[in-house]
Amino acid sequence: MLTIKQINRIYQKGFELRLKKNPHPAFKGEIDPATLEIFIYQANVESQYDEDITILHEFLHARDEINSADSPAKCSSIDKEAIRTYKDKPHVLEYIKDLYYLK
To answer: What is the per-residue pLDDT across 38-76, written as a single tens digit (0 to 9) for each?
Structure first.
C-alpha cells in the first residue's frame, strides 16, 4: 500500500501533479519521469472515485520509478494496490490532495 512516507519522498524528488482538462487518447493518467510530472486527464475519468483511484495509481507508478524497480509492476497489480490503499488508508489520498492543493 502507498504510504505517507512514500508520498513525501515523491514530493521531495520534485514530482508535480497536473490535472489536465483535455483528454488523452489512451490514458486516464500517466507519469513522465523525465519532467517529474504526474498527469491526470480529467476528461477521461468517469467519477470522483475513478479520479481518486487514478491519482493513487499514478503515485504508485511514481513510487516505483523512484525505487527503480527492476521489473515495473503491471497496471493490474497497481490497480489492486491503489484500490486497497483507497479502502484501507483513505488518509493517504487526502494527504496527496492537501499537499498538491486539490481541495
So the answer is: 999 999 999 999 999 999 999 999 999 998 755 666 778
Q: Which residue has the cell 521489473?
A: 71
The answer to pTM > 0.90 is yes
What domains are defined for the chain? 4-99 (3.30.2010)
Gap between the Cα atoms of 23 and 15, Å rounded = 21
Q: HEC states along 72-92?
A: CCCHHHHHHHHHHHHHHCHHH
How far is residue 34's CA from residue 14's CA, in Å, rounded to a whole number? Answer: 11
DSSP-derived secondary structure letter, 2: -
DSSP annotation string for 28-72: SEEEETTTTEEEEEGGG--SHHHHHHHHHHHHHHHHHHHTT-SSP
Bridge partners, residue 20, by sequence: 41
